[in-house]
Design brief:
Elements (H helix, E strand, L loop, with lengths): L3 E6 L2 H12 L13 E3 L5 E6 L4 H6 L5 E5 H7 L4 E6 L5 E8 L18 E4 L2 H9 L6 E4 L15 E6 L3 H5 L2 E10 L1 E6 H6 L1 H17 L1
Parallel strand pairs: 1-3, 1-4, 7-8, 7-9
Antiparallel strand pairs: 2-3, 4-11, 5-11, 6-9, 6-10
Bound molecules: phosphoribosyl ATP and magnesium ion.
Phosphoribosyl ATP binds next to helix 1, helix 3, strand 9 and helix 5.
Length: 216
């Protein structure tokens, strides 16, 4: 059987993946907090533990045969070069627009009523640009790498595009969700060449992940 390399998004997706990998006998057999390349309990599989936003790049270039990554990251990266055979239904949240409570932006489509270029702070410039462009709005996008919630509080932006799960973070910062752009969950992505060259091994692994899905 061919050796497979799986790129895992560290952080919450890794946390949510561990019980699932464990049930399949595929759990990492090594220190996932320190090692970047970790063997699995299955001798035919090992993991790369990397930043979520790097997973599509590793898989696209074949440095990993497959990966587990959020749909948000995949949409931002552009997933055309990858197969996306499976929704693992873990690390679920939604990508939403939010604004300061009580501001003119705090209603759906509020930005369209403002007579100047609206500023949107986000970690997802591509998704944001496409979303507003699709309804004929041109916004100024301010790229941030984290803590988007701060931007509208200090006048850096009128709106944010960010992930929301419980809504507690928005609420704690006096923000309200005005529109949901899309639902997000973690996906399995596969390198296109690997799908051909390592077909049997990948079919076997994807099949095992699938049984888990049906059992849930
Ligand atoms: O380090 P890097 O910037 O590359 O990634 P990261 O630090 O964003 O990674 P991490 O561990 O946070 O994982 C991010 C991935 O987890 C995302 O790409 C999503 O696919 C998934 N995910 C699921 C989430 C959330 N739920 C989530 N709630 N990622 C982030 N959040 C944040 C959100 O940005 C906001 O700040 O949690 C806060 C909102 O949570 P609530 O419950 O208060 O609404
Ligand atoms: Mg991080």
């Amino acid at each position: 059987m061919s050796q497979l390399t799986l790129a895992l998004s560290k952080g919450r997706i890794l946390e949510d993946s561990l019980p699932m990998l464990d049930r399949l006998g595929l759990a990492p057999a090594g220190d996932i907090d320190r090692l970047l390349r970790v063997p699995s309990r299955d001798p035919n599989l090992h993991f790369l533990i990397i930043r979520p936003s790097d997973v599509p790049t590793y898989v696209e270039h074949g440095a990993a045969d497959l990966g587990i990554v959020g749909k948000d990251v995949l949409m931002e990266h552009g997933g055309e070069a990858l197969y996306e055979p499976m929704d693992l239904d873990i690390a679920k949240c939604r990508l939403s627009i939010a604004a300061v409570k009580g501001s003119p932006f705090a209603v759906a489509g509020g930005a369209a009523t403002i007579r100047r270029r609206v500023r949107v702070a986000t970690k997802y410039p591509e998704i944001t640009r496409r979303y507003f462009a699709a309804r004929g709005e041109q916004v100024e996008i301010i790229k941030l790498y984290g803590s988007m919630e701060l931007a509208p509080l200090v006048g850096l932006a009128d709106l944010i595009v960010d992930l929301v799960a419980t809504g507690n973070t928005l609420k704690a910062n006096g923000l309200v969700e005005t529109e949901v752009i899309c639902q997000v969950s973690s996906r399995v992505v596969v390198n296109k060449a690997s799908m051909k060259m390592k077909h049997a091994a990948l079919r076997d692994l994807l099949g095992r992940l699938q049984t888990l899905d049906q059992a849930a």
